[in-house]
Design a protein that fits this description.
Layout (H helix, E strand, L loop, with lengths): L3 E2 L10 H12 L9 H21 L6 E4 L2 H16 L5 E5 L4 H12 L3 E5 L8 H10 L4 E3 L13 H10 L5 E5 L12 H4 L2 E5 L10 E5 L39 E2 L9 E5 L5 H10 L2 E2 L8 H4 L4 H5 L4 H5 L1 E5 L6 H15 L4
Parallel strand pairs: 1-11, 3-4, 3-5, 5-6, 6-7
Antiparallel strand pairs: 2-8, 7-8, 9-10, 10-12
Helix pairs in contact: 3-4, 5-6
This protein binds pyridoxal-5'-phosphate.
Length: about 350
């Protein structure tokens, strides 16, 4: 049965342009480091891909490092920063709602003797005053804060974090996991305020296992963790805003968990009285794919949802929550079918 896919925050459908670019990269099988014609053709493709990512990031092509995905970008950024900055300070600042590919490396750094101060993100807003307080107390090696949360779509204010670092006279480097925000919300010269930015292709219609790390001038001495070649990639832009089509859901008794700043393509909500698992089954029987949270946190969720707890949501809302996420391939008709199904699902309420 063909399904209606509303789980693009887990992974988005592959865009035809990305498939064509990948096929072309396979045809140009030369090694980009080889000096013969086959190598030079492959090099041209690699350079073009790098320039394309750099244009989207508003940075220099030489500041874009290709990686094997968002997880690798985050690991490279955090462990690299710890090596680069660990002699000056063993204090790291992050938040209590980061993706596991940031949270787990942070836990590993704690085992290695670092102190990680996690800012509260209650109600989807990082504790910016808390950041100021910590910076006033002690030197900080680096700060790592995501721009858009993968579970809730909340958007955190990276330019504001940069301003706070500058106002406090801190030389801490700033890393941003922008895997969910990239090309979904305006880039706003994110590269001007962050030293490192992690990206992933499969959230924006590219292939899985492809990512990038922006490495700005202040972080150019970042030590590499993996030694080897780069990867071919052509990233493509854009996810249209489908919130309009879902407006009628807002008056329907569903509980939306939307902080003021949030992604246009991700809706996090609760169906009061209907457990997430029931709702997922109900929708799945109609061929509709949504999720009860981020796929990456599925294992963690058995212990209760870390991010939603950090946001201060009551247990009853957490247990009934759903994440709907959209790609530019979702049509208005599909959204209408989804709306009807959600409203029917509310009737499951005890
Ligand atoms: N960071 C965030 C916020 C994510 O949502 C994800 C994937 O779900 C990742 C990092 C990991 O990216 P990848 O799947 O490319 O390793």
């Amino acid at each position: 049965m063909p399904y209606l896919y509303f789980d693009s925050a887990a992974t988005a459908p592959v865009r035809p342009g990305a498939l064509r670019a990948a096929a072309k990269a396979c045809e140009e099988y030369g090694n980009p480091s080889s000096l013969h014609a086959a190598g030079m053709n492959a090099r041209r493709l690699l350079d073009a891909g790098r320039a394309q990512v750099a244009r989207a990031l508003k940075c220099e092509p030489g500041e874009v490092l290709f990686t094997g995905g968002g997880t690798e970008s985050n690991n490279q950024a955090l462990f690299g920063l710890a090596k680069l900055r660990g002699k000056r300070s063993k204090v790291v600042i992050s938040t209590d709602s980061e993706h596991p590919s940031v949270e787990e490396p942070l836990k590993e750094l704690e085992r290695q003797g670092f102190t990680v101060r996690r800012l509260s993100t209650k109600n989807g807003v990082p504790d910016y005053d808390g950041l100021r307080r910590i910076l006033a107390e002690e030197p900080v090696a680096f700060v790592s804060v995501m721009r858009a949360n993968n579970e809730t779509g909340a958007v955190y204010d990276l330019p504001r974090i940069r301003r706070i670092l500058d106002e406090c006279g801190s030389d801490a480097l700033l890393h941003c996991d922008d895997v969910q925000g990239f090309l979904k919300i305006p880039q706003d010269r994110l590269s001007a305020c962050c030293d490192l930015i992690s990206l992933s292709a499969h959230k924006i219609g590219g292939l899985k296992g492809v990512g990038a790390l922006y490495v700005g001038k202040r972080a150019h001495l970042l030590p590499a963790l993996l030694l080897g070649g780069g990867q071919e990639n052509g990233l493509r832009s854009g996810t249209e805003n489908v919130e309009e089509a879902l407006r009628r859901l807002r008056d329907s008794g569903l509980h939306f968990h939307l902080p003021d700043a949030h992604l246009p393509n991700l809706l996090h909500l609760s169906i009061p009285g209907v457990q997430s698992a029931w709702a997922l089954n109900f929708l799945s029987e109609r061929g509709i794919c949504v999720s009860a949270g981020s796929a990456c946190s599925a294992r963690e969720r058995k212990k209760g949802n870390r991010v939603l707890k950090a946001y201060g949501l009551p247990d009853a809302e957490i247990e009934t929550s759903l994440r709907l996420s959209f790609s530019e391939q979702n049509t208005m008709e599909e959204c209408a079918v989804l709306c009807d199904a959600l409203l029917d699902c509310m009737k499951l309420r005890k």
